[in-house]
Specification:
It is a single chain. The longest helix has 25 residues. This protein is an all-alpha fold and 144 residues long. It is elongated and about 55 Å long. It starts with 8 loop residues before the first helix and ends in a 5-residue tail after the last helix. The chain has one domain. It is built from seven helices and no strands.
Length: 144
């Protein structure tokens, strides 16, 4: 199929939701890495602050690639550009690296408790969905 195949309404809804989701990720990245003050940290659980303080510097960059890559991928998906697939793939890889390190390398569950793993698993699941959905959109000729 070619890129002139008209996508269905669900494509546009999913594209907009993906963009909104990834913009939320950018908001959290900016909040954590640019706006986090000692006063704000004082309101957080001590375990969370300790994990944030002990996180490696490279994690901030991987996190940035994940969220900003996800936003760009979402925009490209809505523009019906096939490059969205590669960027969703890069974003997914960065999410797996970042979340994998938080879960296993920093012992997220041991430090914060079992409930702390819920959000990372949701983020991973959505990133997997975005990647495979964009691949399907390319296969269906909705993006090219």
């Amino acid at each position: 199929m070619n890129a002139t195949t008209k996508p269905n309404t669900a494509f546009w809804i999913i594209g907009v939701l993906a963009l909104l989701w990834n913009l939320i990720g950018v908001f959290f990245w900016v909040s954590e890495h640019c706006l986090m003050t000692e006063e704000i940290k004082a309101t957080l659980p001590p375990e969370q602050v300790e994990m944030m303080n002990n996180a490696p510097t490279w994690g901030m960059y991987v996190y940035a690639i994940a969220v900003f890559g996800g936003v760009l991928a979402s925009v490209l998906l809505l523009m019906r550009k096939k490059l969205a697939v590669a960027l969703f793939g890069i974003s997914l890889l960065c999410i797996l690296i970042q979340m994998g390190y938080w879960i296993f390398g920093m012992d997220l569950v041991g430090v914060m408790g079992p409930k702390a793993i819920i959000m990372p698993l949701i983020v991973i699941a959505i990133a997997i969905f975005e990647y495979f959905y964009s691949k399907g959109a390319a296969r269906n000729g909705w993006i090219g």
